[in-house]
Structures are given as C-alpha cells and as structure tokens.
Task: structure prediction
Amino acid sequence: MAQSFRLFQGDPTVTSSPTEVRAWIEELDYSFLVYGEKFERAEINGEKLHDITRQKLNELGIIRTDHQDIILKAVANIYKKNKVEQQAMQREDQCVRISK
Result:
C-alpha cells in the first residue's frame, strides 16, 4: 500500500461536513472506502476529525494499526499545514502594520 501523506485539494477543515470528511478519508487509499462510510455514519465532521484518536478509530472498527497510522498522520499533516499557514498570515499582517 502506498503511504503517501500528500495534502489533497479537498483537505477537511473544522467546518467540513461528515460527507466531506468521508470523501477525504476515501481519497487517502482505495482500501479506505469502507472507512469513509464509518466516519460519515458516526458523524465525524472536520471539528471531530481534528480530535480523532486511535481509540476512536478502534471504536469505528478501524483496527489495523497501519491504517490507523495513515489516518492519524494525514490528520496531523492537515492541522500542521493549517497552523503554518496561520502563522505565516500573522507574520504578514505584522509586516503590513509595521510598514504603514
């Protein structure tokens, strides 16, 4: 299984619906189609996705640890990327204020 943790065009945000999170999970790997359905049925939206844990994945029936690792790393990458973007925007705002 290819373990590509690339960021997708449709990365979920805290405002993403369970359907959007399902689509994202299914994009991670072809074999995750069944997981997408489990996420949607459990109403995992973008906000809940941010707080997903290995325990919650087990509760959802995702028991393969390699699959859990892929999902957890992909989630961490999204929020890491978002944090970096927010910090960059804050620095840009500070630079604009200083230059005025």
